[in-house]
């Protein structure tokens, strides 16, 4: 099936509305859809010159910005597979990500070459995306030219990208998504949002979308692809910030947004008012949003918040749109109405489908993911006979509305990022004054959840609780991305254990609240 290459989305926009601006940087630069396609073609030529071809993985360790758009589409034109590694990761996390995914080439920013100095992989080529001078001994990739390169034909089930996600258990995993599955997810969302599955349906003068999430995040990539799928331009910035957001709102007069709950929290608590005039709605996904924050935002700006439920592995599953709100269909507290075309079942622990209203695990038929590239056992648990097991618990009512009640396992979502307790525990156990540790999530209005560490001190630890807390947080920050660092440390004499002697994760301690 030749039409499934994601690069064809860009090529179609270049053909039908090539002179329309399709990409803006926050620094004033802009590119038309035709220029984006030409620069992406130049990237494809540069990657091919490095020996990259169909099926080869190319890792990106890049600060968020417009350039990533060129590299994504340049790789896709060749049938290559972008491996989008968080720019928030430190050198150790970068090395682990590279080891899991085995890319042929690693692209880094000129200013981040120190992070690749200790990578021990003789088969991995490393190139800086600087086009001027080599940085840190890393040779630059010669990608600045333009070329008209047509996307190669790919099958629907070909790997299109590798994104890092928590999966269903253990440490962060590398999830493989497909060209055909991604396109199918975009078509479902277009049908819900615009009433049409056809590409290029946005008006030629439609406003650009702000891609608020980073392009190493599945939400950022899907926002970019969806905008291009319907024909809207994209504004890509380095990172979220209130003053940056205000400036871009004044410049572009956006008519909709896709935010993480963390961003909405910061907007609500900002001292300045933002120019939300003309914004029809704000879509929130990535994690549950606090009702308090939602009410504060809607009362302050008179703009409705819509929710969307899905995941990197399953795609878009359920949500609400503007038409639902106007028709009075919206149900407060729900995940949303199941989107047309989504096959969803609620199943018990034995895998049997449950009737309407019964609670069980949310399971979705999806061609989006090929599973985890680094964990065959977890992949077999995730995808069974074409059905993705989300790990979320809930039920579907008689109107086809999905209600979530919790997660089957104990993953923490902090600021839209997935955090696994085991990873934090592994790091903090290396601290000489930690005897035992358990990490779990606690609700937080701004971040959704925060990691909290229960620590059993070593009997000989001389430090006070406050001193040890500060030391543990600093220890974690040196070894983990900032969003994984525990925001709170509590000391206990011992951890609750199961009958088998394992640390129990079934209960959440009722910690005394204090500032």
Automatic annotation (TrEMBL):
Domain AMP-binding enzyme C-terminal: residue ranges: 423-502
One MF term in the entry's GO annotations: acid-thiol ligase activity
InterPro entries per the UniProt record, alphabetical: AMP-bd_C, AMP-bd_C_sf, AMP-binding_CS, AMP-dep_synth/lig_dom, ANL_N_sf, ATP-dep_AMP-bd_enzyme
SUPFAM superfamilies, A to Z: Acetyl-CoA synthetase-like
Any one Pfam family match given in the protein's UniProt record, by short name: AMP-binding
Keywords: Ligase
Chain ranges of the AMP-dependent synthetase/ligase domain: 10-372
Name this protein carries in UniProt: Acyl--CoA ligase
